[in-house]
Amino acid sequence: MNRNYLNVRFKAKTTLQAGHMERRTFIKKLALGSALLAGILSLLGILRAIVPKLTRDKMTYKLGHAADFPMNTFTLAEKASVFIYRDHVGLRAVSALCTHLGCTLEQSDDGFLCPCHGSSFDGDGRAQSGPAPQSLAWFQVSLAPDGQLVVDKTKRVSSADIFRIT
Predict the structure, then answer these.
(1) Which residues have C-beta within 8 Å of that of residue 59, sequence separation ≥ 6?
(2) In which element (H, E) is residue 108 found?
(3) Strand-strand pairing, 106-108 and 90-95
(4) Which of 15, 49, 100, 126 has the fewest other C-beta atoms within 10 Å?
C-alpha cells in the first residue's frame, strides 16, 4: 500500500479540528439519542394505556332538536361522544366511549362494540365481554330555552331515565 496514503489518513485522525467529531462518535451519539427517543415514546404509550383519557374539557352539549334524531335507533352525536336513543316516549343519552381506554364505540345489532379492543355492551350499556371494566354511563338530557336538546355529562342517570318529549 502507498505509504503517503497511510500518513495522510493518520494525520486526518490525529489532527481533528475543534468542533468536529469522529464518525464513530457521531454514530454512537445518534444511536443513543434514537434509543432514548424510542424509550420515551414507549413510556408515553404505556402511560396512555394505564390512564385513559375519558374526560373532556366541555361537559354540556347542545345537540340540536329532537326531530333531528330518528325513532327507535341510537344516533351518534360525535361532538358530545354520546349515543342518543329516541323512541315514542322520549330521549336518552349513553356514553359512546369504551370504559376500557376511551375508544369511540360502534353500534352493533345487540348493543355496542369497541373497535379497538373488542369490548361489547348490550343495548342498556352493560359490559358483556372484553376488557371493559364497567358499564357505559347514561347522562341527563334536557331542553334549552331555544328548543335544542342538551346533554349534561356531569349528571349521570340510570338507563331507565327518559327525557319525555311533549
Answers:
(1) 152, 153, 154
(2) strand 106-108
(3) unpaired
(4) 15
Backbone angles phi, psi at 46, to 5 degrees: -65, -45
Distance separating alpha carbons of residues 89 and 110, to the nearest angstrom: 21
- For the segment 12-36, the average pLDDT, to the nearest whole number, is 80
Residue type, 112: F
Give the whole-angstrom CA distance, residue 31 versus residue 58.
Answer: 43
Specify the pTM.
0.62
Tell me, what's the pLDDT at 160?
81
CA distance 129 to 162: 26
Q: Are 132 and 114 in contact (CB under 8 A)?
A: yes
Cα radius of gyration (the chain): 29
Q: How far apart are CA 125 and CA 149, in angstroms?
A: 21
Residue 62 identity? K
C-alpha 53/C-alpha 79 separation (Å) is 15
Q: What percent of the chain has pLDDT over 70?
A: 83
The string of pLDDT tens digits covering residues 136-152 is 999 999 988 888 889 98
Does residue 15 register a pLDDT over 80?
A: no
C-alpha cell at 161: 331515565
